[in-house]
């Protein structure tokens, strides 16, 4: 059976599973729509959290970035995993004890201000739409290749599926759908990694294969071979970083604190019955996340070696385009691989200098990896289903956050406090539907690679929510004026920096020489976070003190009765 038919079958079967789960767990109240009724088991919530957090950036794009960036790509591994530990230890249990539905709910009540709640709603929507753009792009990339449809059609199909189970099922439907999606995506990620590890190094466990010798008789270590290939072809050594230490530090920090401030991840800890269950589900989620994240560097290295050898040939002399492997011809149809015959010899050549004739989109590496390695068709189809599961799981969580921010925080808690629960649920579903339309547009017209777009969202979360939440829990004296001023200055500075260098400045301007202190747009969220803290503390000292009732509220969060 060919790849396309197998892909139709696997993706179709997964869609049927997701829709059946959504129908079975349809939300009937606002509590079920927002937090799944608060009764999810910690292990199930751990799986759902892992699926919610491991988006298309983790499944599709992260290993691709590491494959092209080498050592520098490690910032994504360090930042995202370290951030989750920070979230699990410092924020999740306290926010769960506070007992509100959403992050704007916490900020509005903790800082005793509707203005603070409104600012938090705006930040939530801005962050979530930036994040969801990468997810819908991931959906389009998968469909454009494996279902052989235009990327716009692929995004529309993804929108329809997410609309059905997010709008109908709410958090209750999304939670149990994400459990199924985690099972699909982790199986799809590990199976080809194991296959390729055995083929290239003889090790069943990809993490061991990453540090082993090649199985081709050369007795060279995998990473030594990659360094030699990179040097020969004009690239920087795979194990040597080109980024400045300051930029690496700032990107890692932005991803860490951004993870701890992401509203769609934080809300997952409200879906469990008790505070201790929030801690347990955080531990389980970290285990489930580690299965994928410790495998990503192996996949990146395997894909890099196989990609270079299939394009350049065994002696790096180039392969005739007419004799190009099927994976190149298949991906050329999508426009995500392009060949330019600069010297008119009919041969493809991939290098890091002027000899290069190949333009390769980094987002295809994980999806193309089984094809490059000539794995069975069912493995290729499985990876497609996994990529769709990863993108849809996070898209649904983000859309629900946008929906709840508008219906609950903006309408119910601010503009229309007298609406009934039924009306609030209707507003939530309408908001989710509109959000899906906007997300689809952003998926068709994304600002950058999937992982880069997601990194921008983490920077925005780092510069806005993280300081407000961490000070709200651990600094009783922080008042509403300080928190609101800090959030506005932090996210305003970060968003302006990203927008300028990614959308306004000429392409040649987006280089380290023109960045502030050499800090890239992906890492500027750390500087935005520092600005947030500084502004918040200064304004707090110059404005009225926090009421005693709010200080007692903070004590009740941190200290058991």
Give a summary of the structure in a few sentences.
This protein is mostly helical and 561 residues long. It has helices at 3-24, 30-35, 42-53, 56-69, 74-98, 103-110, 114-146, 151-201, 206-210, 222-232, 245-260, 263-266, 275-293, 296-312, 326-332, 365-372, 377-415, 421-444, 450-474, 480-504, 524-542, 548-558, and strands at residues 319-320, 337-339, 347-348, 358-360. The strands form two sheets. It has a two-stranded antiparallel sheet with strand order 1-3. Strands 2-4 form a two-stranded antiparallel sheet.
Q: Which features does this protein show?
A:
two-stranded antiparallel ribbon; single chain; 561 residues
Describe this structure in words.
This protein is mainly alpha-helical and 561 residues long. Helix content is 71%, strand content 2%. The chain is built from 22 helices and four strands. The protein has a two-stranded antiparallel ribbon. Strands 2-4 form a two-stranded antiparallel sheet. The N and C termini lie far apart (63 Å).
Distance between the termini: 63 Å
Any idea what the shape is?
A: globular
Q: Show unreliable segments.
A: none
Strand order of the largest sheet: 1-3
Please give the number of β-strands.
4
For the sheet with most strands, the description reads:
2 strands, antiparallel
Helix % is over 70%
On the 0 to 100 scale, the average pLDDT is 80
Structural class of the helix and strand makeup?
A: mainly alpha
Radius of gyration: 24 Å
Give the percentage of residues in beta strands: under 5%
Tell me the number of helical segments per DSSP (H or I, 4 or more residues long): 22
Quaternary structure state of the chains depicted: single chain
What's the SSE pattern?
HHHHHHHHHHHHHHEHEEEHHHHHHH
